[in-house]
Amino acid sequence: MIKTMRAAVLDAPGPPEALQIRDLPIPKPAPGWVLIEVKAFGLNRSELHTRLGLAQGVTFPRVLGIEATGIVAAAPGGEFAPGQQVAAIMGGMGRTFDGGYAQYTSVPATQVIPFESGLEWATLGAVPEMLQTAHGSLTIGLNVQPGQTLLIRGGTSAVGMATAILAKDRGLTVLSTTRQAQRAPALEAIGVDHVLIDDGDIAEKVRVIVPNGVDAALELVGTPTLPDTLRATCVHGVVCFTGMLSNQWTVPDFYPIDYLPRGVRLTAYGGGAADLPADVLQSFLDAVDVGRLTVPIYRTYTLDEIASAHADMENGNATGKLVVLT
Prior knowledge:
The chain is of the alpha/beta class and 326 residues long. It folds into two domains: 4-127 and 295-325, Quinone Oxidoreductase, Chain A, domain 1; 130-268, NAD(P)-binding Rossmann-like Domain (Rossmann fold). 25% of the residues lie in helices and 28% in strands. The chain is built from ten helices and 16 strands. Strands 3, 5, 6, 7, 8, 15 and 16 form a seven-stranded mixed β-sheet that branches. It has a six-stranded parallel β-sheet with strand order 11-10-9-12-13-14, with helices on both faces. Helix 3 (128-141) packs across helix 4 (158-169). The longest helix has 14 residues, at 128-141. It is globular, with a radius of gyration of 20 Å.
């Protein structure tokens, strides 16, 4: 059996080129941990924050990656059978221990989600963290109901597009933003009802379509656009703060009565593996397999192209998910 693997290693915060491909020993899983042969993994803004030195509690050198998709190579505790298709997300992956940017990764069994699918690994690799975030935002964060209106701020991000796909499947009317007009067709193609070109003042545009404001809004850009998103929401409506595409996530001198429009509710969502039950993942993959739902993939890369993939993520070049095949 081979004893080494290829992995993308970050020695310290830096530019995309700081991610270096090296040969490392294949991890040996302890009882309660699972060794996964990684077939594909998606890129996430969280990993960009780590590379830029914005994440807390990270030690270096580190193999990044808060998610991975592949097959079980070993599970000393017997939680999963070798060969089982699995996804792994969150829980310190790529921060407090080495994550998915490698041919193998070892993670706690509690973070591993089994599934069975004949979809290509490029598609499967795009799903776990994106689905967990979109599903959790809609259910835990917003508790959306059929017939409601939903605004997605940051609509051409992977999570934004996945949320629109799930929301349309649940019977919502979806308004979604993009700063670039040429990306509007990509949103229309996944069923978005109203594409809004984001010039910083979306609330006025929203209320032309929905005069009283939307029932629910998902904030994926961050604190710079949050006040405007709140103004686009109706009385007793809910805004869920989930994403930080702007890399800004704090509000200085927060005074709630001045900051929050009267009667508008503000919540937040940040989840983990427990928020993506195996039946939710399996149902989504089955729906994709029969063509009822789609997975918004921008493009795929090889592990050797990890620096290029990170540059595309940092520069906002993608419309949808970036996926690396190992």
